[in-house]
Amino acid sequence: MEFKNETIRDFSLEKERSAMHSALDSLPKSFPFEIPISIGTKEKISPNSFFHKNPWSPDLVVTKVSLAKPNDLEEVVKVSKKSWFEWKQVSQEERSNLLIRVADNLVSKKDFIISVCIWETGKQVTEAEVEFAEAVDFCRYYAMIAKEKLSPQKTILLGEDNFYSYHPKGIVGCISPWNFPMAIFTGMCAGPLVSGNIVVAKPAEETSATAYEITKCFWEAGIPREIFHFLPGLGSEIGEAIVTHPEVSVINFTGSRDVGLSILRKASIVSPNQSIIKKVICELGGKNAMIVDADADLDVAIQAILSSAFGFQGQKCSALSRLYVHSECYLKLKDRLIAAMDGLLIGSPLDFSNRIGPVINEESYLRLQKIQKENANFLVGKTCPVPDLGFYISPSLYEPPNNSDMWNSEMFGPILSMRKISSFSEGIQLTNQSDYALTCGVISRNPKHVLEAKSNIDAGNLYINRGITGAVVNRQPFGGGKLSGTGAKAGGPDYLYLFVEGKTYTENTMRQGFSRETLT
Ligand code: NAD
Question: How far apart are CA 246 and CA 374, in angstroms?
């Protein structure tokens, strides 16, 4: 089976733009989308709802999300127990084929799903296109590696047969974030499903409609609804119930550090009626650095900085927020960067020429405004003006003091800090001072420095002479170390092992004589 990454469309072509515009324009008449709870074959609307507003036009309510409660999870567990036995019997070949069909279904609804995502998140169309391709890639790639990696292994010796095989772990709770609601949601569910588990999906509140449309593609492909349940709702309610339920074997979590660490603590408690040790996969935030070397190509550096720090308004775990620049090119780079930031167009993602859109919601908007106010004295560059209506935060560049929290806390917004370094090694040392270790970038033409970076930088994903976001399935398995996560490496060859456990059978085949009754 050959794997090929999904093609990315070119929106400089009129025909691509107009198809996407008609999909986007067709949605608002159906707002608010009503998102149900789905347990097995039953769907229900709850009287308790969460309302998500459109980020660039907050008067518009995009979704009304039913809030699942702990008793819904009890129902899921009951339904799943009955169906799991059959699902486990489905061959790996068939499960992989189902996932390929999911990918085909996604592709057939591409413009619609991308449009839902844009209306929920405020993501630019080019960013959404790349994210969508990643979702499709996850399905095709995991379908392929499931067949390659999860088949049983035999070691036959004289007098001894050994078998080693992989078995699904059971119920996997997939708790996902809003910032990549297509790719991350799809990948987090596809991995456990193709390896034979039951999935309870708990999408982020803000992007429940995108997640629901994707879930339908799984069901329509033939993944049984009794195996893939959809429980939208609040993290503090249904999220927590999934984490603490004695029959949920694996928590597959992607999100913030605080929530991730609290999940690790709670999942470590074994309740009296529990007979499993829960496995927790936590993929968390980043405080990602880039080092610009003395001899760096500044054209490459500027492009890499703009896309990494401000793409999707800096709301990526991989986003750049610490920039260390060699003293020999510091002023030149700073001037060019400020000038380039000035040219960034800010506005609604419905206008495809805009490079910067709104942040996700009012809470993020107020949090980021507060950070900007508190650091106003260190501001050196800012993109202006921003539209009055909508949750817009202008991309801004700071030179904060060395002891500022701007160097430590994840910003999750278009806020970048820069600092002068006197040597490349100092850049590495500062990079490694963080307790996060997700992505990192190096812009350098010095082969010795590139080698030094490869050996010494703590980062799950190190990028050289390019931007530091946008990992591609199969080519750049993604995930960090230190407090950035447990290193799941989504989109990589080892991902599926997280959802299975190995069993070994050894048989002594030396002739022992046969029992009489088995000889007939
Ligand atoms: P979040 O932690 O607030 O929420 C993530 C998910 O957890 C949501 O579905 C939420 O409802 C749920 N949740 C919240 N409280 C919970 C609880 N007590 N128990 C169980 N579930 C709970 O994160 P977010 O704001 O949605 O996403 C942004 C964060 O995610 C950033 O920190 C970003 O860096 C990180 N992120 C990491 C990666 C990665 O691969 N490492 C990828 C994307 C985002």
Answer: 44
What pLDDT shows up at residue 1?
65
Average pLDDT over residues 91-114: 98
Residue 2 pLDDT: 82
Q: How far apart are CA 413 and CA 416, in angstroms?
A: 9
Q: Is the CB of 259 under 6 A from ligand 1?
A: yes
The whole-angstrom distance between residue 15's C-alpha and the CA centroid of its chain comes to 30
Residue 283: active-site member: yes
| 288-464 to CATH, choices 3.40.30.120, 3.40.50.2300, 3.40.309.10, 3.30.830.10 | 3.40.309.10
* Of residues 324, 329, 323, 328, the one with CA closest to residue 308: 323
Q: Which of 317, 329, 410, 440 is catalytic?
A: 317
Residue 250 backbone phi and psi in degrees, to 5: -130, 135
C-alpha span between 289 and 292 (Å, rounded): 10
513-520 average pLDDT score: 70
Catalytic residue among 131, 283, 399, 410: 283
Fold that domain 14-284+485-503 belongs to in CATH: Aldehyde Dehydrogenase; Chain A, domain 1 (3.40.605)
pLDDT tens digit sequence for 474-498: 999 999 999 999 999 999 999 999 9
- Kindly give the distance from the C-alpha atom of residue 66 to the centroid of ligand 1, in angstroms, as a whole number: 19
* Whole-structure pTM value: 0.97
Alpha carbon separation from 440 to 118, 187, 326, 428, 491 (Å, rounded): 27, 23, 16, 10, 18
Q: Which residue has the tokens 């459109």?
A: 54
| Same-fold call for 14-284+485-503 versus 288-464 | no
Q: Is any ligand 1 atom within 6 A of the Cβ of residue 361?
A: no
Tens-digit pLDDT profile for residues 214-248: 999 999 999 999 999 999 999 999 999 999 999 99
Spatial contact of 152 and 91, defined as CB atoms under 8 Å apart: no
End-to-end CA distance of the chain: give it in Å, rounded: 44
